[in-house]
Amino acid sequence: MDENRGTALHMAVNFGETRIVEALVDAIMAYNGESALKLRNRRGNTALHIAALRGFTRMCRCIIGEKGERKDLIKVKNDLGETPLFLAALACHNHTFVYLHNASKDSGVSPAINDNHNNTILHNAIADEVFIKQSNPLLFISLFLY
């Protein structure tokens, strides 16, 4: 583990190496279990945070598990209080955001979760105006009503 960049999994996700990510997750689950997927880089990001921030939905699905068996990873906050769901919205990755939202519905993760500055995803999206302009505003806002 590199203190600044994180684990090999963090780096593979960051470089968009899907096959390597899949192999690493398989190896982690076979030998170490889920705790290795919770390791953080210097900013407190897990590999799932990075996948969400980069909009790598397939990698998010791999890390969470095809059947959502590790969806509790969506609740993990980084040093700024941001969850992977939060980061997907901030980076305007609509498909990744919707996937993470749907995967986390029954795990207690809400799009209304606050970061360390007491901002929600909706606050940031409105402030940036980017996410709402690039997607269907009614769909985005409806996610906060349920």
UniProtKB/TrEMBL annotation:
Q: InterPro entries given for it?
A: Ankyrin_rpt, Ankyrin_rpt-contain_sf, NF-kappa-B_inhibitor
Q: SUPFAM superfamilies from the entry?
A: Ankyrin repeat
* Principal subcellular localization: membrane
Fetch the Pfam families from UniProt.
Ank_2 (PF12796)
Q: GO biological process: what's one of them?
A: cellular response to tumor necrosis factor
**Its membrane topology, per UniProt?**
Peripheral membrane protein
Q: Which domain of life is it from?
A: Eukaryota
Does the UniProt entry include the keyword rRNA-binding? no
- Molecular function via GO: NF-kappaB binding
Mention any one GO cellular component term assigned to this protein in its UniProt record: plasma membrane
Q: What is this protein called?
A: Ankyrin repeat protein
